[in-house]
Amino acid sequence: MNKRAEERRKQVLRATLKAISEKGFSVVTLQDIADYADVSKGVISYYFENKEDVFYHLLEWMTDRIFQNEYAAIQKESKAIDKMRAYVNAAFKSPEDNRIFYSVYLEFLAQVNQNERFREVNSNFYKNCWFIGSEIIQKGKSEGIFTNIEVESGSHMIRALIDGCLLQWLMRDDEMLHSYYRDNCYDAIITYLNYKDS
């Protein structure tokens, strides 16, 4: 796919994200997406098979962007404890970004049981999240910290704490609490990992 075509697809996906976040998953139509993208419905049909295909690619694009951003953040740090802080900070990207992602993501999760393609993307997303957690724990083990944590279960729990804190922040509907939940999330993870600052 050439660069112009890829940019047009992303334009449609960004518009779909905005449309779902403002209108809700169940009521968004292809015409809505076209209107938000400022293109004709024919353009959308050229790049995607149908509305479900647009939604599938949106979920894939959103979750891949999050993984890439979070993984890039931990690569900038050398010590495990700094990688963990970078991971949490990247997950708590900004109130606006987190609100849009999680409000739309929750709509997708409501469809997962009925849609095999959505379920597959969601499964891949969590495998990527667990990969990040595993890499941090393994790094910590090599440094002589996080020694009492099993890598697989530990990586699952780290993501559970991140998502749980972000969802609770979302339910509180107060942007000012974003940093509060971010900092408490980090503290909860560090406590769980039984890390003691020497």
UniProtKB/TrEMBL annotation:
InterPro entries given in the database record: BetI_C (IPR039538), DNA-bd_HTH_TetR-type_CS (IPR023772), Homeodomain-like_sf (IPR009057), HTH-type_Tx_Regulator (IPR050624), HTH_TetR (IPR001647), Tet_transcr_reg_TetR-rel_C_sf (IPR036271)
Zinc found in the keyword field: no
Alphabetical UniProt keywords: DNA-binding, Repressor, Transcription, Transcription regulation
Sample GO molecular function, one term: DNA binding
Pfam families in alphabetical order: TetR_C_6 (PF13977), TetR_N (PF00440)
Domain HTH tetR-type: 6-66
Positions of the DNA-binding region: 29-48
Full protein name: TetR/AcrR family transcriptional regulator
Organism: Psychrobacillus soli
